[in-house]
Amino acid sequence: MFTKNPLSNRPIRSFVIRSGRLTNSQRKAIQTHWESYVLNSRTLSRPDCFSFPKNVALSVEIGFGMGDTLLQMATDEPTKNFVGIEVHRPGIGKLLHHIAENDLKNLWIICQDAKEAMMNCFESNSIDKIFILFPDPWPKKRHQKRRLIQSNFVALLTEKLKPGGILHLATDWKPYAEQMLEILEQSKGLVNENGSSNYWECPKRPETKFERRGKRLGYDVWDLLFSKSAS
Ligand SMILES: C[S@@+](CC[C@H](N)C(=O)[O-])C[C@H]1O[C@@H](n2cnc3c(N)ncnc32)[C@H](O)[C@@H]1O
To answer: DSSP of the chain, one letter per residue?
Structure first.
């Protein structure tokens, strides 16, 4: 699953841990609410998967950043369950603060590399929707191997989706959008909901923080919506 750096034999990560300072409220939320809302796969006894109720729809957002979009989705749909995967502590702190403040009972966090979390924490055919909104574009050619959307990761996501489940990606970096489209179109078991080679022109989802910043700079946005075929 992990592409290794041939010189160090370490996995190539799709993120760098940014040293952004925690605000007092983020630090307090991490100290107070971590145990309640952050799922810890290392403490699981059975083969690591979390067992979410099968009769409740489950959505997962990978790389939720500061968490605004995930918070809105979970607030808008209180009868569905949501899990966010992120490694950026200020974002985790901010989301924890809002989960606790709003007493949300349908939103949890995994603080771990999404590649490990997806591999270890979810059963096959268990997720209704996976969102990856504005993953780091890694625009320099020598960094492109760090991009999260690679065919082996997409195969893993497809395995974890329920038949008919949805994979929703978005980016404001055109070369990455083209690469995403190519990888998803070639992925076994995925179908483009907008017809072959098409992006989703009028996506239904909340605007993200990263997207807002890009739009201020005049960037366009490409959304991709694929479903897992039933058979
Ligand atoms: C460009 S930001 C976008 C954040 C948010 N989705 C938005 O649109 O505002 C990408 C986020 O993905 C997170 N990320 C990247 N690779 C990840 C990984 N392998 N596991 C977990 N989070 C990851 C980064 O920490 C970062 O916060």
So the answer is: -PPBPTTT-PBPPS-----PPPPHHHHHHHHHHHHHHEE-GGG--SSS-----TTS-EEEEES-TTSHHHHHHHHH-TTSEEEEE---HHHHHHHHHHHHHTT-SSEEEE-S-HHHHHHHHS-TT-EEEEEEES-----SGGGGGG-S--HHHHHHHHHHEEEEEEEEEEES-HHHHHHHHHHHHHSTTEEETT-TT--BSS--SPPPHHHHHHHHTT---EEEEEEE---
